[in-house]
């Protein structure tokens, strides 16, 4: 262990959890620091993956691909099944690492690992359902059909806020689809990546699968660029900011690679006059404040009918007042820390901008526990009444700020909801079926996720996850997202003994 790491309850617990997942925690040392947003302390130091190592990792994944591709998909499913079993066995251990690095409260850290277990289940089933269709051919004695084939190496770039679940959405599907994976986790979530990788490595060994099918690289930005630019990487699946997506997408496009992007959200909920306000209140608070406002699905804008806005904001202010903020290991706390100081500064800047743009902070926004933890950034979630959807409201600030806007007519509310550059998640709280249907129709929400009487966050893995516009257009996780990890081939088989040409063309 390096000199900088002090032995504390947290570092001891993290090392125990790493060992339980199969990582030789005592052998770790190096130039990278894994820091905890809980206290600001360094948990472990560990070696960085150099840019050359990233290229070598892509090489190993590319080498493992043909044998993996050629095996039966349900046999590939066995590896994912075993991974799911190990994740179930080590759910609490991995959650300790998620909590230590992402700052989640215990139930959300456990919930994140549960998402991994669920997607493994889903992918195992999918391994027997990589369906292609057969279409009627226009020619006699011909069969027209499609088949789905493995794509190659998939590069997975994941973010700090769902540091392991989003990796598993991609990896569980990519593996059953016959692809191999190189994973670059967030630089602020290295330990939970090590734990996840160790469990997957064990599953690979237990099933006798090729060792190269999953490669973890603890790389910085330069290493990430290597991954993005490598022509052997058939698909780059990247989760993160719009800024990151703007850099990744053209680089991948320049070499005609595929990109699956899951970028920022600026999610809104409409609260209609007929809404059940008790239910709406709970849905709003969880979506706005859960994970300290650091989900890409976090509720950031509340569009409330003018007849209920005063009652609802009053109740929200009250509810915000009861939230306990602090060390997420403490079961009574519901709001953990922001990931780092930069994130805190961005929140403060957004609050200043909001006030300059005519907003009123109804509650929250202050840093707390600064004396106890000078290196950690705990904040009171903020509720801000805005006169209009101003510039700051149109941006995603990755912190717990909820802007409140009002509307008179549903069309106006939908206009506000859609009037931002991002298009991930959205919701309406209403008891009016006609309103709900309008919201879900093609003239309603323009987001990838549109919900009724439920908040914007906390999606199940069974549906496709992703959004439109600046959110990047990618779909991950459930439904038929698996198709992004495969290539489609169209096959025409002629068993007629003649050679009729399509479109009635005659030749020779
Ligand atoms: C993310 O924040 O990148 O729907 C993913 C949710 C979670 C996933 C969020 N199931 O909030």
UniProtKB/TrEMBL annotation:
Residues 32-488 form the Aldehyde dehydrogenase domain. Belongs to the aldehyde dehydrogenase family. Its EC number is 1.2.1.3. It comes from the Bacteria. SUPFAM superfamilies: ALDH-like (SSF53720). InterPro entries: Ald_DH/histidinol_DH, Ald_DH_C, Ald_DH_CS_GLU, Ald_DH_N, Aldehyde_DH_dom, ALDH7A1-like. Pfam families: Aldedh. The lineage of its organism: Bacteria, Bacillati, Actinomycetota, Actinomycetes, Micrococcales. Homotetramer. CDD domains: ALDH_F7_AASADH (cd07130). This is aldehyde dehydrogenase (NAD(+)). The active site is at residue 262. It is an enzyme of class 1 (oxidoreductase). Keywords: NAD, Oxidoreductase.
